[in-house]
């Protein structure tokens, strides 16, 4: 999981290009390219297109005048109006001459000058500056360059259906000026359009890409296994659908990772429990085999002595039997304690928390061990005062019994035992002190271990198994309370703590 997370984090650190800038750059480039293309087409093709339009205008005008001439209506009032429109709208100079050379109709007042210009165009009097553009049976169109005026013209001359000569001329210089003005205007408009489109596109694309950027931030947090961030868009478009799916994916991943962690923790606990059980099993077998070896050897030896009648008198047989019974009883007590300890360590023993009088419990235990105290010539002092605690009464009795038994067997010098309370805010410490030798510092941390004995010879002497203090530690752990031991100036003090307030029972 960590390796995947690290890999995704490195990937996210790679250089990332803004999608807003990319979209804006593309669209602004398209707008700029479109404006430039329009300018280029305008520069290259507009003049040629204009020339074709002028040619068509001359031909259409000739065709219309020819129709009127064929109908014999050149002199009609209606055609006069139409004639003026053709000349003014198309910027065309028209001269119609009859077969005798008289001007039948003209769009200019300077008829003589117009006649000369047309004659020059027709017969090439102006320095061979005419180019034929189109030619039919009825008319011919030429391009004329007037070096005096530095102007180009399209000139059409031909013969109408009624035999009249017609000459038409239109200038081309206006198109060049129009192209220049158009390109200049288009440049200004193009720059303005690019600027306005850039501003508009930025805000429009920003609005479109904001959900994408939000999804990017969410994905970065998901890489870090942070699933708190959620997509909040509600436009109901494809991006919002993606955001909703991201939210669902985030919840699913969070739930799945939580389950994986829980399963992993359970697996760790199971492995630890298994390891602990294996260790305890091996330790248990080793310790039990060691502790049972001596009593079993004694029982076997004395049993064989009885069988072989080593000493045949009644007193010897009785002694042999007492030894066998005593060792068997020790084995029985040790097995019972081991079973009790096993239940406590594995949590199989039920704990009943109740409020009871601790002083009365200690007085009862003192009555039970009084004979043992007398046999060992030990004096026990107990400062009796009322003290109620919350705990499992039977297990507390087991703790006090083990402490007192241990103190009686290890009491030396003055051979005194003192039991006293140290009250705290919400608990009480119960201490059992006995005079005698101190516990070596290197042994203090091990005295709670099963079968650990500080003075093995002395323990063996009174039949101790080294399990009592382990039972005390297991009981106090089941209460979630502390216990311990301290070396004093002239002895040793064992202690444990119990709650006096039921509010302390919540663990």
Spatial ordering of strands, largest sheet: 2-1-6-5-4-3
CATH class of the largest domain: Alpha Beta
Question: Which structural class do the helices and strands define?
Answer: alpha+beta
The domain count comes to 3
The coarse overall form would be: rod-shaped
How many E-type strands? 13
Q: How large a portion of the residues is in β-strands, by DSSP E?
A: 15-25%
Mean pLDDT: 77
Low-confidence stretches: 11-16, 125-129, 456-464, 503-507
Measured on Cα atoms, how large is the radius of gyration?
Answer: 61 Å
Work out the helix count.
12
Q: What share of residues is helical?
A: 55-70%
Say what the CATH topology of the largest domain is.
Heat Shock Protein 90
* Name of the CATH architecture of the largest domain: 2-Layer Sandwich
CATH homologous superfamily title of the largest domain: Histidine kinase-like ATPase, C-terminal domain
Order of helices and strands: HHHEEHEEEEHHHEHEEHEEHHHEE
Major beta-sheet overview? 6 strands, antiparallel
Q: Give the end-to-end Cα distance, rounded to a whole number of Å.
A: 33 Å
